[in-house]
Amino acid sequence: MLIALPVIATTRNPYDKVGHFMQGFVPALVAREIFVRGGYVTGRKMTAFLCICVVMAVSAWYELIEWAAAVAFLGTQGDPWDTQSDMLFAFIGGSVALLLMPRIHDRQMARLMPAR
What we know:
The protein is mainly alpha-helical and 116 residues long.
């Protein structure tokens, strides 16, 4: 049995997906810094999980605002999978940030935070 997966339509502006990738990448690092510097969360796995939760919440709110604007002003854009693919790209962006940046991020925060 084949499962149909949404394909990124190339008829629309593909740079939208770069924006949604960054919509995940940046909030993941911001949330991580708040959690780590504030001492709110201990443990790398829990920090990463909560950062992804923040990324998905930000993405969901953005998609609700985008939907409301489309209904009010633009009408449908013709891609029934747009919201899902946008949120997928935000998730990927957040995951990439949390996979590639923690050591660099920790070093930068160590320069800012006094020794405990």
